[in-house]
Hints:
Blueprint: H1 2-11, E1 15-16, H2 18-30, E2 33-41, E3 46-54, H3 59-65, E4 72-81, E5 87-96, H4 103-119, E6 125-129, H5 137-144
Parallel strand pairs: 1-3, 5-6
Antiparallel strand pairs: 2-3, 2-4, 4-5
Amino acid sequence: MAFLRSYSTASSGMGVAEDCKEIFLELQRKKTHRYVIFKIDEKRKQVIVEKTGGAAESYDDFMTSLPENDCRYAIYDFDFVTEENCQKSKIFFIAWSPSVSRIRAKMLYATSKDRFRRELDGVHYEIQATDPSELDLEVLRDRAH
């Protein structure tokens, strides 16, 4: 039985730092952040918060915060106005895995994604992106409507 338990822990990927959920809840409930970028700390074997973007930051600020050649997870709080002129907000989970990133990093992020994503209760949509064009603002608009 102990073998099975340790195996399932190993197969579930990285742990999640305590502040990841707290900061996600700040974005979700208090609207203190526009986005949060998470990275895997391989030494600590857990997902940690790398950067938060203030509520006034733009989508361009978010995009420039993603590394060109390394994987990350991100949460983006997308505000929009409906056809009925109602202000709405949808939370996107983004698995950023640029095609030029290391294969080891891609595998690590891919195997840890589901467990980490389950920690963030209240995400509306998920996007897997390997290129900035897959994260164009229009992509979010189309998903949110």
